[in-house]
Amino acid sequence: MSRMPTTVERQTVTAGSCSDLNSIFDQEALLDRCMGDAELAARLLNRFGERLSTSIAEIKQALTAGDRSLALKLAHALKGEAGSLAALRVQQSAAAFEAGVHTASELTHPEIVRLTAALVAAADECVQRLQEAIEALSTSANHA
Amino acid sequence: MRILIVDDSDIALELLERTLVKAGHTVDAARSGEEALEWVRKGVHRLIVSDWEMPGMNGLELCRKVRSVSTNYVYFVLVTSHNTSADIVTGLSAGADDFISKPFNPPELLVRVRAGERVLSLESREIAIFAMANLTESRDQETGQHLERVRSYAQLLARRLMDFPKYRGRIDDKFVRLIYETSPLHDIGKVAIPDHILRKPGKLTDDEFAVMRTHTTLGKAQLDLALEKYPDAEFLRFARDIVACHHERYDGTGYPAGLAGQEIPLCARIVAVADVYDALTSDRVYRAALPHDEAKRMIIKSSGSHFDPDVIDAFIELADQFAAINRSLADGSVEHAPSPHMDSVSASGLQLVPS
Predict the structure, then answer these.
(1) Most buried one in A14, B41, B53, B279, CB count within 10 A?
(2) How many angstroms separate the CA atoms of B34 and B166, rounded?
(3) Can you say how many angstroms the Cα of residue A108 is from the centroid of all Cα atoms in its chain?
(4) Dihedral sign, CA of B165, B167, B168, B173?
(5) Is the pTM of this model over 0.90?
(6) Count of Cβ atoms closer than 10 Å to residue A117 Cβ
(7) Per residue in B242-272, pLDDT tens?
(8) Yes or no, beta carbons of A35 and B12 under 8 Å apart
(9) B interface test, pick of A26, A30, A31, A35 with most B CB neighbours within 10 Å
């Protein structure tokens, strides 16, 4: 019979996946950027998470429409926001995507397809782990 | 300080705003270059922090626009992930003052903003000094461009002397900048001279002249008071030396203290030449301006008596440039800009004015 994990178990789970989470969100850098304000960091991360699927959809549409310059602009903006919030995986995938689109001969090139899939995966992972990251933020801020 | 922040990302704007507000600044936010330009036209911000990449008008274009529409100097910081030296050259060519890499680090941003404030305060200081000097001029009714010419002559002389081996280490770029900034204050003490003496259309009696000479000591006293309050303000010390000693003569026969040779601060020895050359080449009620060659001859003749021979050596080399400044910063004709006041050269008791 399944049951909800106890508080102790939940903390253990969080601690166990900590390094993994840190490679998705650099919480320390984000808190630095928010000058230790966990509430601000959480609010901005939430806003970022809410918009992420729209941003990805717009990038895909630009690719479908063959609009390279729009795809570049959108990827650059996403990279910038992810960078501001230290959402490392999204930032890295958006940067790789931007560089790929910049140099690719065709937007339908298999490399672009691969980079797009990687960006989508990074965005999904980011959304899935967002709440976990926010909880960890308040813990780190309290310890700071 | 009231700062304008520009970014198309509301997340970036919020981070910028929080950082700056927490440091005590007032912040207005614009979501695009176009919106920022509306603010710039209002002229309320002296410092802008703008993203480089934005849809529509980007940060570079905004910076160029700011340079063309803004009447005041606006300090422009570009936030950018463009970090190559070519990018920096592009940014600087557009008129940006500084860069900060994206994503920004709050302490770094605040350091950049402080640097900007420092630059702006230097500019304000310069404006304040010049406004103060202009005030004296307006009472004195001396012709409009006198201060501009004197500071240009003084700057030229200082820059030339900097290359003389014996002044190496004594005159540097800072000295040149300070003499340019503070030389317009040389007659600031004249604000305390009564009108019937200051504006007397003709030669002064001995008693009147004695009062007139106090403009050096009165000016010095005011600047000494300011120095007591701000002992580290180097420009005040520099201004004080110029005000107090620009009527001293190299041979010790000047006023107010009768200092001689190296006892006279170097900045005052330089300003003395600049001031006298300008007086000689300007119209007075009782004589027309002397031609450059004549003024040059008289000044060279006073080398070692009135003037420091080193400064005169520099003057000889720069004479053509003096003549050029004299032409380009000339006052209006004497009919439009009469100078019903005694000649500052004759006021010092020098017999430089031809009979």
Answers:
(1) B279
(2) 55
(3) 24
(4) negative
(5) no
(6) 11
(7) 999 999 999 999 999 999 999 999 999 999 9
(8) no
(9) A35
Q: Which amino acid is at B104?
A: F
Q: Are strands B98-101 and B26-30 parallel, antiparallel or unpaired?
A: unpaired
Coil vs helix vs strand at A87: strand
Each as own residue / partner, the long-range contacts of residues B60-67 (CB below 8 Å, 24 or more positions apart, any chain) are: B60/B90, B60/B91, B60/B94, B60/B96, B61/B33, B61/B94, B62/B6, B62/B33, B62/B36, B62/B37, B63/B91, B63/B94, B63/B95, B63/B96, B64/B94, B64/B95, B65/B33, B65/B37, B65/B40, B66/B37, B66/B40, B66/B95, B67/B94, B67/B95
| Token pair for B119 | 């630059």
What is chain A's alpha carbon radius of gyration, rounded to the nearest angstrom? 17
**CA atoms within 13 Å, Cβ hemisphere of B260:** 5
The first and second tokens of residue B337, run together, are 């800009």
Give the strand pairing for B98-101 and B2-6. Answer: unpaired
Residues of A in contact with B9 (CB under 8 A): 77, 80-81, 84
ipTM given for this complex? 0.80
- Go through chain B and tell me how many residues it has: 355
**What 3-state class would DSSP assign to B167?**
helix
Asked if B22 lies within 8 A of A35 by C-beta distance, the reply is yes
